[in-house]
Design brief:
mainly alpha, 434 Repressor (Amino-terminal Domain), 2 domains, two-stranded antiparallel ribbon, 7 helices, 2 strands
Length: 206
Protein backbone atom coordinates (compact mmCIF):
# COMPACT_ATOMS: atom_id res chain seq x y z
CA UNK A 1 0.00 0.00 0.00
CA UNK A 2 1.24 3.50 -0.83
CA UNK A 3 2.38 5.64 2.08
CA UNK A 4 0.11 8.48 0.97
CA UNK A 5 -2.95 6.20 1.17
CA UNK A 6 -1.88 4.91 4.58
CA UNK A 7 -1.53 8.44 5.96
CA UNK A 8 -4.96 9.48 4.71
CA UNK A 9 -6.67 6.35 6.01
CA UNK A 10 -4.96 6.47 9.41
CA UNK A 11 -5.83 10.15 9.86
CA UNK A 12 -9.48 9.48 9.04
CA UNK A 13 -9.54 6.53 11.46
CA UNK A 14 -8.23 8.82 14.17
CA UNK A 15 -10.84 11.44 13.27
CA UNK A 16 -8.46 14.39 13.12
CA UNK A 17 -7.80 17.13 10.58
CA UNK A 18 -4.55 17.80 8.78
CA UNK A 19 -4.07 20.92 10.86
CA UNK A 20 -4.50 18.99 14.12
CA UNK A 21 -1.90 16.43 13.05
CA UNK A 22 0.45 19.19 11.91
CA UNK A 23 0.11 21.04 15.22
CA UNK A 24 0.74 17.89 17.24
CA UNK A 25 3.84 16.89 15.28
CA UNK A 26 5.13 20.47 14.86
CA UNK A 27 5.06 20.38 11.08
CA UNK A 28 3.27 22.52 8.50
CA UNK A 29 -0.14 21.49 7.24
CA UNK A 30 1.18 21.88 3.68
CA UNK A 31 3.91 19.31 4.35
CA UNK A 32 1.36 16.79 5.60
CA UNK A 33 -0.89 17.56 2.63
CA UNK A 34 2.00 16.90 0.23
CA UNK A 35 2.73 13.57 1.90
CA UNK A 36 -0.93 12.54 1.75
CA UNK A 37 -1.11 13.52 -1.93
CA UNK A 38 2.09 11.61 -2.75
CA UNK A 39 3.89 14.75 -3.95
CA UNK A 40 6.88 14.00 -1.72
CA UNK A 41 7.77 11.91 1.33
CA UNK A 42 8.64 12.51 4.98
CA UNK A 43 12.16 11.67 6.09
CA UNK A 44 12.74 8.57 8.20
CA UNK A 45 12.62 10.28 11.64
CA UNK A 46 9.32 11.97 10.74
CA UNK A 47 7.95 8.70 9.38
CA UNK A 48 8.65 7.12 12.77
CA UNK A 49 6.83 10.03 14.44
CA UNK A 50 3.84 9.49 12.13
CA UNK A 51 3.77 5.74 12.80
CA UNK A 52 3.85 6.36 16.57
CA UNK A 53 1.12 9.00 16.32
CA UNK A 54 -1.21 6.89 14.19
CA UNK A 55 -0.15 3.57 15.68
CA UNK A 56 0.68 1.71 12.46
CA UNK A 57 3.64 -0.58 11.82
CA UNK A 58 6.43 0.57 9.52
CA UNK A 59 6.28 -2.86 7.85
CA UNK A 60 3.13 -1.88 5.95
CA UNK A 61 5.01 0.71 3.87
CA UNK A 62 7.38 -1.86 2.37
CA UNK A 63 4.97 -2.24 -0.51
CA UNK A 64 5.46 1.41 -1.48
CA UNK A 65 8.28 0.96 -4.01
CA UNK A 66 8.63 4.65 -4.74
CA UNK A 67 8.98 5.54 -1.06
CA UNK A 68 11.50 2.74 -0.42
CA UNK A 69 13.61 4.04 -3.32
CA UNK A 70 13.49 7.50 -1.77
CA UNK A 71 14.63 6.06 1.57
CA UNK A 72 17.53 4.32 -0.16
CA UNK A 73 18.52 7.59 -1.85
CA UNK A 74 18.33 9.45 1.46
CA UNK A 75 20.58 6.92 3.19
CA UNK A 76 22.97 6.94 0.24
CA UNK A 77 23.15 10.74 0.44
CA UNK A 78 23.78 10.61 4.19
CA UNK A 79 26.53 8.00 3.78
CA UNK A 80 28.09 10.01 0.95
CA UNK A 81 28.17 13.15 3.09
CA UNK A 82 29.75 11.23 5.97
CA UNK A 83 32.36 9.66 3.68
CA UNK A 84 33.09 13.01 2.01
CA UNK A 85 33.60 14.61 5.43
CA UNK A 86 35.92 11.80 6.56
CA UNK A 87 38.06 11.89 3.42
CA UNK A 88 38.07 15.69 3.39
CA UNK A 89 39.48 15.75 6.92
CA UNK A 90 42.12 13.16 6.01
CA UNK A 91 43.11 15.11 2.90
CA UNK A 92 43.46 18.32 4.89
CA UNK A 93 45.55 16.64 7.61
CA UNK A 94 47.87 14.87 5.17
CA UNK A 95 48.29 17.96 2.99
CA UNK A 96 49.00 20.12 6.05
CA UNK A 97 51.63 17.65 7.29
CA UNK A 98 53.33 17.52 3.88
CA UNK A 99 53.40 21.31 3.60
CA UNK A 100 54.63 21.68 7.18
CA UNK A 101 57.53 19.32 6.56
CA UNK A 102 58.36 20.75 3.10
CA UNK A 103 58.07 24.46 3.89
CA UNK A 104 59.06 24.61 7.56
CA UNK A 105 60.86 21.60 9.01
CA UNK A 106 63.13 20.77 6.06
CA UNK A 107 64.39 24.37 5.66
CA UNK A 108 64.99 24.51 9.44
CA UNK A 109 67.06 21.32 9.33
CA UNK A 110 69.85 23.40 7.75
CA UNK A 111 73.06 21.45 7.27
CA UNK A 112 71.91 18.42 9.26
CA UNK A 113 71.85 16.07 6.28
CA UNK A 114 70.68 13.03 8.25
CA UNK A 115 67.73 14.91 9.70
CA UNK A 116 66.94 16.39 6.28
CA UNK A 117 66.96 12.93 4.69
CA UNK A 118 64.61 11.59 7.35
CA UNK A 119 62.21 14.49 6.82
CA UNK A 120 62.30 14.17 3.02
CA UNK A 121 61.68 10.42 3.26
CA UNK A 122 58.77 10.95 5.66
CA UNK A 123 57.38 13.64 3.36
CA UNK A 124 57.57 11.34 0.34
CA UNK A 125 55.94 8.49 2.23
CA UNK A 126 53.06 10.76 3.28
CA UNK A 127 52.36 11.45 -0.40
CA UNK A 128 51.38 7.79 -0.91
CA UNK A 129 48.42 7.72 1.53
CA UNK A 130 47.49 11.21 0.31
CA UNK A 131 47.09 9.84 -3.22
CA UNK A 132 45.03 6.87 -2.08
CA UNK A 133 42.75 9.02 0.09
CA UNK A 134 42.28 11.39 -2.87
CA UNK A 135 41.21 8.44 -5.06
CA UNK A 136 38.82 7.18 -2.36
CA UNK A 137 37.36 10.67 -2.07
CA UNK A 138 36.91 10.80 -5.85
CA UNK A 139 35.11 7.45 -5.89
CA UNK A 140 32.70 8.60 -3.19
CA UNK A 141 32.11 11.96 -4.88
CA UNK A 142 31.26 10.31 -8.22
CA UNK A 143 29.57 7.14 -6.97
CA UNK A 144 26.31 8.15 -8.67
CA UNK A 145 28.04 7.12 -11.93
CA UNK A 146 28.58 3.59 -10.64
CA UNK A 147 26.80 0.99 -12.74
CA UNK A 148 26.12 3.40 -15.62
CA UNK A 149 27.58 1.78 -18.74
CA UNK A 150 27.98 4.97 -20.77
CA UNK A 151 29.18 7.27 -17.96
CA UNK A 152 31.51 10.05 -19.25
CA UNK A 153 35.30 9.84 -18.98
CA UNK A 154 35.64 13.47 -17.86
CA UNK A 155 33.40 14.88 -15.14
CA UNK A 156 33.33 18.25 -13.33
CA UNK A 157 35.59 18.38 -10.31
CA UNK A 158 33.92 17.67 -6.98
CA UNK A 159 35.39 20.95 -5.72
CA UNK A 160 36.56 23.96 -7.67
CA UNK A 161 36.74 24.35 -11.41
CA UNK A 162 37.95 22.08 -14.19
CA UNK A 163 37.40 18.40 -14.90
CA UNK A 164 38.44 15.13 -13.31
CA UNK A 165 38.76 11.53 -14.48
CA UNK A 166 35.62 9.51 -13.78
CA UNK A 167 36.75 6.35 -11.92
CA UNK A 168 33.53 4.56 -12.92
CA UNK A 169 34.17 4.94 -16.65
CA UNK A 170 36.02 1.89 -18.05
CA UNK A 171 38.88 3.95 -19.47
CA UNK A 172 38.79 6.24 -16.44
CA UNK A 173 39.17 3.28 -14.10
CA UNK A 174 42.25 2.06 -16.00
CA UNK A 175 43.74 5.57 -16.06
CA UNK A 176 43.09 6.05 -12.35
CA UNK A 177 44.77 2.75 -11.43
CA UNK A 178 47.67 3.38 -13.82
CA UNK A 179 48.33 6.88 -12.46
CA UNK A 180 48.10 5.60 -8.89
CA UNK A 181 50.60 2.80 -9.55
CA UNK A 182 53.02 5.11 -11.41
CA UNK A 183 52.97 7.73 -8.66
CA UNK A 184 53.27 5.09 -5.92
CA UNK A 185 56.31 3.63 -7.65
CA UNK A 186 57.81 7.10 -8.08
CA UNK A 187 57.57 7.94 -4.38
CA UNK A 188 58.75 4.48 -3.30
CA UNK A 189 61.63 4.71 -5.77
CA UNK A 190 62.59 8.14 -4.43
CA UNK A 191 62.62 6.81 -0.86
CA UNK A 192 64.75 3.82 -1.88
CA UNK A 193 67.17 6.12 -3.72
CA UNK A 194 67.60 8.35 -0.67
CA UNK A 195 67.82 5.59 1.96
CA UNK A 196 69.73 2.83 0.20
CA UNK A 197 71.52 4.53 -2.70
CA UNK A 198 72.51 7.64 -0.74
CA UNK A 199 70.83 9.86 -3.34
CA UNK A 200 70.90 13.58 -2.41
CA UNK A 201 67.66 14.45 -0.61
CA UNK A 202 67.96 18.05 -1.80
CA UNK A 203 66.97 16.97 -5.31
CA UNK A 204 63.46 16.20 -4.04
CA UNK A 205 62.86 19.49 -2.23
CA UNK A 206 63.82 22.07 -4.87
Amino acid sequence: MDLSTILVEERKKKGVTQQEVADTLYISRQSLSNWENGKNFPDVPMLIELSNYYGFSLDIIKGDTQFMKQVEKDYELINTKKANKKYSVLLIILTALILLISLVLIPLSGNHMTLMKCLVVFDLLLCIPLLHVAVKFTKVAYQHYEGIADSPLWVPKAFGYGVSINPYNKVGKILTIALLVILDLFFIGAVVAIVFLDYPATLFIH
